[in-house]
Amino acid sequence: MGLSNYILNFNCNENKTIYLILFLPIALIAGSLVINITVFLIIFIFIYELYKKKRFYFILNKEFYFFLAIFFYILINSIFVSESSHKIISALGNLRFIFLSFALAYYLKLENGKYEKKIYNFWAIVLIVVTIDIFFEYTFGHNLLNFKSNYDGRIASFTGSELKIGGYYFGFILLTLSFIYLYNKNIFYPLFIILLIAALLIGERANFIKIIFIAPIFFFIIYKTSILKKIIIFLIVTMVVSFIIALNEPTKNRFYNEIFNKIENIGLLNYLKTNKHGLHYVTSIEVFKQNKLFGIGYKNFRYESHKKKYNINNDRNVWAPHPHQIHFEFLSELGIIGYLMLMSLLIYYITNGFIAYKKNKNLYTLSASLFILATILPIIPSGSFFTTFTATIFWINISIILKDKIKYNY
Questions:
Q1: Is 307 within the bounds of a domain?
Q2: Is residue 9 in a domain?
Q3: Most exposed among 32, 133, 251, 386, judged by the fewest C-beta atoms under 10 Å?
Q4: Nearest 10 degrees: CA dihedral of 137, 140, 143, 147?
Q5: Which of 349, 361, 326, 358 lies closest to 400 in space, CA to CA?
Q6: Tens digit of pLDDT for each residue in 56-104?
Q7: How many separate domains does the chain show?
Q8: pTM of the predicted model as reported, rounded to 2 decimal places
């Protein structure tokens, strides 16, 4: 079958909203404005379609109220705890992600999954194009659109100066591998290694660590062979990755000299205390100690960390817009109550995702579950959970698990 039969062969009677869902990965690369426009259009059409059919079945789903409870906690927190009034508007904006997750689940499931394969196919093609672009930029110093990274050892690709391609890769690599495995197992294994190499070349250490954590788990689960063969393959991949790191000076500097060499010389604890992200962690812990129940307010870390009481050594690295670690972000900004609510949500979907995979063997469900699992890895740095870019990728993966849990009467 030709590519058009998978992606673009929609007749006049088919749902044009699928085009917007196909476009989501491109929107993520294009930036926050394009992401928000795409998301709002998907939500608007979704609600309008259900309104016409008088079928708001998702409001009878317990997950919907679980999401709403978290949303209202964040909203109340932004009203009564945060110092900045514009955080209320930002908190209200989180409602879009709840509706996005139900909308994506609805369209992925529409007409017995009629469009699901086309969606994942297109998303896989976008990631393959990004992969080609990564190798192109690594080779020539600029990407296909002549974007250049201003950070030594990092690849910009299509995200340009924002340097978010590692987060994008983390969000979609397993979904892409799932599609490739189901489409053609013969090309899966070489592409598996190629995508891992591309993830390494991007130069984003935290996202690469998350990818290298979940990719072998994914591989070992789906690859039906002996444990010995799996171990051998894992060792070969490890050797290839290590070889690439050793040969490439910028990559070696970022992955070895700046981390392992420093830890070896000064110890892990001192490394965390002196590392930029480590200083953010220390500050967030101090913030949490003084505001344990409700935190210092939604997206308020950027203001709180400026205060002198957290910076007794006058180190400018203490300040940050967010703690750069999901657990510290939840604890410092939303307190123990918000932390428990959000972690309950994440653990619930990890657990239910694996249960659903065991039942239906849907690789996309497995991929989404592993993504969420890697999201909550401790210590590993992360972007702010509540940014448009990060939140959209997260809720896309939530929707894939949600699809297996809700029932729409079409």
A1: yes
A2: no
A3: 32
A4: 110
A5: 349
A6: 777 778 889 999 999 999 999 999 887 666 788 899 999 999 999 999 9
A7: 1
A8: 0.92
